[in-house]
Amino acid sequence: SIECDLDNPAPDWLTDGSWIENSNLAKLPAFVGLDKDFTAYLTEFKGIFDSVTAHEDPLPGPWDEKLNSFQKMLVCRCLRADKVIEASQNFITEKFGQEFIEPPPFDLAACYDDATNMTPLIFVLSAGADPMADLVRFATEMKMNKKLSSISLGQGQGPIAASMIEEGMERGTWVLLQNCHLAKSWMTAFDKIVEDFSPDKMHRDFRLWLSAMPSPVFPVAVLQNGVKMTLEPPKGLKANVRRTFLAFKPEKLTESNNGPAWRKLLFSIAFFHALVQERRKFGPLGWNILYAFSDMDLACCVEQIHDFIDEYEEIPYKVMLILCGDVNYGGRVTDDKDRRALMSILDQYITPNAMDDDYKFSKSGKYYIPADGETKEHYMEYVSSLPINPAPEVFGLDDNADITCAQNEMLKMFDIVVGLDGAGGGGGAGAGQTPEEKVFELCDTYLEQIPQPLNEEDVYNKYPTDYHECMNTVLMQEVTRYNKVLEIIHESCAQLKLAIGGFVVMSSELERSFRSINNNQVPEMWQALSYPNLMPLAAWINDLVARMQFVQSWYDDGAPPSYWISGFFFPQAFLTGVRQNYARLHHLPVDTIDYDYIVRDDVEWGELQEAPNKEEGGCFVYGMYIEGATWDAVAHQLADPRPKELFSKMPSFWLRPVQNREHPTHEFREEEGIYQVPLYKILTRAGVLLTTGHSTNYVMNVEVATDRPQDYWIRAGCAMFLALRS
Description:
By secondary structure, this protein is α/β, with parallel strands linked by helices. It has a 5-stranded parallel beta sheet, sandwiched between helices. It has a 5-stranded mixed beta sheet with strand order 12-9-16-14-15, with no helix packed on it. A 4-stranded mixed beta sheet has the order 6-8-13-7. Strand 2, helix 9 (about 160-170) and strand 3 form a beta-alpha-beta unit. It is globular, with a radius of gyration of 29 Å. The chain starts with 15 loop residues before the first helix and ends in a 5-residue tail after the last strand.
C-alpha cells in the first residue's frame, strides 16, 4: 500500500518512504498501533534514527518487550535500513551461532580430499579474485605441478579442452578449464563428457578443475555433482593494500636507480589499486559499472613506472598518468563518466606531490606514503596501523556513502530472499488473506486507480504536427509510449483476475506476474514496456498515476509554464524539441544549439506561472534530485550533503538555448566555478545505448555553480536523477 492513515509526524528528518513502510508495518497483527505510538514517542524514535547502534537500541514504550528479535528487525528496516545487515547478523548469531556469519577459511586441500577422479572441482569466480596462483601452489605441494595442464575457454577452444580431458583421464593428470562461462555453445557437449565419466576408464590420479563466473549456461548436473569452492578477494582497503604488498618480492623495493622516488610511487600505485577495487562496494556511487580490475593491471603499471623512473632524468608524470589511467586500468572502463572518475582519482596518486613527505591521500591525514624504507616490513607496519573499516573520505566520498553502501547490501540481500521464494510467498496483506485473494484485490485496485489509455486520435486533432511547435509532437510521442504501458496493465490485470477465478488458464507469463504482484515487484510484462525504474510495485503505481496526471493536464490545459521533467517517458525527445523550437524560430542549425543552465532557486517546484518569452526560448524544468551534494540556496552553489540525507531536491532550472556554446571540460582543469553534473533517469547510472543514439539512462550534463574544483565532486560521485527508489 502507498496510502497512510496518519501524516508523517516528522518530515524534517523522517522520509516519506520510511513513514509509508512504518504505516504498512502497523497493519500487521503484531504491530497494530505502531504508527500512533511513533508519534507519541517521537523523541525516542529520533534517538534511534540518529544512533550509530540503531540495530541494538531498545525500542520505546511497550514495543521493546512486545516484539521478538525478528520483529524488531522489521522496525529497523523501516527506520534505519542501513543497519538491517548488522541486525540480521545479530539475529543469526542469537538463533544459530557465530559460525554462521563467519566465512570458513579457504582450504584447497580439504576440498581436494572431498573429491574423487569422478568429481569436478569448481571454482566459482568473483570479481577481483584469481584462484590460479593458489592452485599452482597446491599442485606443487602435491607434486602434480608438471602434470597440470590448463586452457582458458572461449571461441573454438572446446574441442581442445575435450582432448585434454581425454588425455588426462588416461595419464592421470590434472586438467584446469578456466572461464567456463565464456564457452556457452560448448557447455552442452561438456555436460555429456562429464556425464560419461566412468571409474573403469579413468586413472585414479585424474582431477578435473573448473573455474566459472555464476552463469545460467553452466551445466546444472556438473554443478550439483562437483565440489564448489569460492575465493573472495580480501574485503577492505587495508586488506587489499596488505595483499598487494605481500605479493611483491623483497628485492622489488630496491631494484630502481632512484630508490626513494620508486618506492613512493610503488606504494602510491599499490594504494590506488586497492582503492579502485574497494570503491566497488559503494555500487553506482563508486562506479557506474563494476569493473574487475586485476593484479595484471597493477603489474603493468608497476613495470612501466619502474622503466620511466630509471630511464628519464625528470619523472614524466603526465605520460605515466595516461598510460596507467587511460591504457592499463582505463582499457577496462567502458563508461565515459567512470573514465573521468578514474583519471581524477589516479591524479592524486601519480603526481609530483607524492614526492613531498607531508603529502596526504585524504583530508583526514590518516592515509599517506610512509617514510622511505627498503624493506616490505617497513611498509607493512604502516599498513597494519590503518583502520579496518576506512571512512568514505579516503575515496573522496561523503560520510553518507557508508549509509548508501549498507542500504545497497540490504536491498541485494532482500532481492535474493525474494528470489528464493519460488512459490510466490504467503500473502501478508492482512490476517488470513491468501496470496490469491491479495493479488485479486490488488488487480481490482490497479484497474480502478490507473487511468485508461488516452485516445491518440483526439490528442493528434488537438495538438497536430506543427513546424513551429515541436512540443505537440513530443506530447503525441509521450501519449503513444504511455498508452502501451496502460494497455498491458489493464489487459493483464483483467486476465489475472479471470485466471485466479478459474475462468481462463493461468499461463506461465500470468503466473510470473502473479508472483511479482504478490512480492510487490513490477511484473516483467509491464516492465518491458515501461520507462526505467527501480521502484517497488506500490511506489511504481503511484509514480505512474502521477505521470499520467501530468500528461492529462498537458492535454487538457495546454503546455505547462514549467515542466516536470521526471514525468517524461523519454526526456531526451523533450530536450531536443525545445532546441528545435528555438532553432526554427531564429532560422539556426539545430546542431549548433545548446543550453545555458540558469538556476531558479527563488521558487518552489512547479510554482513558476509563466513560461520564458518566445524570443529567448527554452523552458523551465523541475523534478531533479542530487546525490553526493546538496544545493545551497543562500550561496547559490553546490554544497556538501547534510548528514543522513542521501538525496536532496535540486531547484528548478531555466534551460535557455544558446548558439555555439563553449563547454568547459574536465581536461581543462583551470576551468573553475562550474561542475558538469551527469543527469540520469534512475540510480543505477549505467545504461544501454539505443538505436536512436540515446542512452536508456543517461540524459545530459547539467552545469551548476561551485566554489570547489570539479575533481572534488567527481570523486564524490555527485550526480542527479529523475527518479529515486520510492
